Amino acid sequence: MWAILEPVFRAGETYAFPVDISEEDARRAWTGSPKEVFIAEDGDTGQIVGTYYLKPNHDGPGSHVCNCGYVVSADARGRGVASLMCEHSQDEAASRGFRAIQFNLVAASNDGAVRLWKKMGFDVVGTLPGAFRHPNLGFIDAHVMYKLLG
Amino acid sequence: MWAILEPVFRAGETYAFPVDISEEDARRAWTGSPKEVFIAEDGDTGQIVGTYYLKPNHDGPGSHVCNCGYVVSADARGRGVASLMCEHSQDEAASRGFRAIQFNLVAASNDGAVRLWKKMGFDVVGTLPGAFRHPNLGFIDAHVMYKLLG
Fold it and tell me: Looking at residues B12-36, what average pLDDT do you find?
């Protein structure tokens, strides 16, 4: 899984993890409680092509909204893996009683993700000015995206 | 501090902590790393009238935006303690290099807070449908509020 996550975390263009994060800290950040972690396998080769986590976005009065993060292996891009994982996560979230999924910090430069999440029924409910420090673009806006389930 | 926090957490009307949180878990939640914690004292009596925490809202590419939470003692309400703590937190945040403060989940029913934060220069940048489970009102909207510093 680290082989999939490392290049994405190191790039620092999409996820709010330190670009110099260690493997051990990344394991904790991606899989630590209360996160549940899923893996997408290629049905033919058995290769891991993606992973996502699912967790409550807040405690107590906010614990019915979950948060997910998805990463697709570099060599499996463009095959619909992110869509499949997002659909899967919505089912898993609904079955656990979550009423909505929230993405807290979607870099506005990440056109592909924004487009995909919109196609999957997520709305941009807000935009945070300069909330994402992009390695090439500097301080750029980030979206909060949200979808009510079922 | 627990005497100030407990009634607010137990009420479950404003903060996303479990209403049945233990004192020990509350200590961890309010003061645990990477949070820094501040206390407001009455200059005359030396009594603690409020507390707030300050922490990065995200890691890495999101670590220049901080998140704060403020609680005022029940018997010190209406004396401007929240305003003073919010002003103080903006100075502390700026001095640590944060570029913005974000509130992730402001219950829309919390008129007093929404009005105060707006007066202090925060914008409602987004509203999350049904994201807050209020003990009396059920699932209500929550605002994401944000202020760029300096």
Answer: 95
pLDDT range class, residue A36, cuts 50, 70, 90: very high
Min Cα distance B45 → chain A (Å) is: 34
Q: Cα dist. B41→A41, B30, B47, B48, B76 in Å? A: 57, 18, 5, 4, 10
- Minimum Cα–Cα distance from B64: chain A residue: A131
Phi, then psi, of B103 in degrees rounded to 5? -105, 125
Is B105–A130 a contact, with Cβ atoms under 8 angstroms apart?
A: no
pLDDT at residue B90 above 90?
Answer: yes
Mean pLDDT on A65-73: 98
- The whole-angstrom distance between B42's CA and the closest CA on chain A is 31
Whole-prediction pTM value?
A: 0.96
* pLDDT given at position A84: 98
Return the percentage of chain A with pLDDT > 90, whole number: 99
3-state secondary structure chain B: CHHHHHHHHHHCCCCCCCCCCCHHHHHHHHHCCCCEEEEEECCCCCCEEEEEEEEECCCHHHCCEEEEEEEECHHHCCCCHHHHHHHHHHHHHHHCCCCEEEEEEEECCCHHHHHHHHHCCCEEEEEEEEEEEECCCEEEEEEEEEEECC
- The yes/no answer to whether this complex scores an ipTM above 0.85 is yes
If you search the block for the tokens 């290099």, which residue do you land on?
Answer: B97
pLDDT of residue B43: 93
